[in-house]
Amino acid sequence: MVHGLASHLGGGLTITSRPGQGTTVDLWLPISAVAVETDNKGPSTITSHQALGTALLVDDEDLVRLSTADMLMDLGYEVVEAASAEEALRLVEEGLAPDLVVSDHLMPGMSGVDLARSLRAHRPDLPALIISGYAEIDGIAPGFPRLTKPFQAGERAASLAALSPAEAK
Predict the structure, then answer these.
(1) CATH code (residue 112)
(2) I want to staple 127 with a disulfide (CB 3.0 to 4.6 A). Which of 20, 42, 144, 167 is the partner?
(3) What is this structure's pTM?
C-alpha cells in the first residue's frame, strides 16, 4: 500500500535488507507545486444540525479504518466502525440504521460487495461505496460506486457526492 501511495503521488519507495544488519526503507515524495493555504480560523466544528447521518464503515485493517473514519467525520458523518462484514451485519441486526455504508472489498469472510448486497436486500435505497486496492479489476463491484486505494480525502468526498440521488439521503 505504501508503494502504491508513493507511486500515485509521483514518488518512489525502495527497501534494502541484509540479514543481521537490518532493513532500510527509503520513501520519496514530491514537493507540492501548490503553496499550502493557511487558515487562521482554526479547525471547523460540525454541529449536530450539520450532520449528514450515520456512516457504517467496514474495513479489516485498523489503520485504514481509523483514517477513513476521520475523513468521514470531517465530512459530517457520525461513524460506526466494524472490523468485518459479519460484525457490520450484527450491528444492523441489533438496530443500527446507517444512512451510508463504506466498505473495503476484500476482507476475510464476507466481501464488501456481498455485505452491501445483503444490506440492500432489506434496504434497496441504502447508498454503498466499495473501496478496493485493486484498480485493474473492472468488475470488482458491478452496480456499486467504487473508490480505489490509495485515495485522498477529496477523492472520497467526490465519490460520496456522486452517489445517485436515489441512493443518497
Answers:
(1) 3.40.50.2300
(2) 167
(3) 0.62
**Three cell numbers at 152?**
485522498
* Full residue range of the structural domain in which residue 4 is found: 1-30
**Is residue 7's pLDDT more than 90?**
no
Length of the chain, please?
A: 169
Report strand pairing: 77-82 vs 12-18: unpaired
* 146 within 8 A of 129, measured Cβ to Cβ: yes
- Are 86 and 109 spatial neighbours (Cβ–Cβ below 8 Å)? yes
Residue 132 φ then ψ, to 5°? -140, 145
Q: What distance in Å separates the CA atoms of residue 84 and residue 110, rounded to the nearest whole number?
A: 8
In sequence order, the β-bridge partners of residue 81 are 57
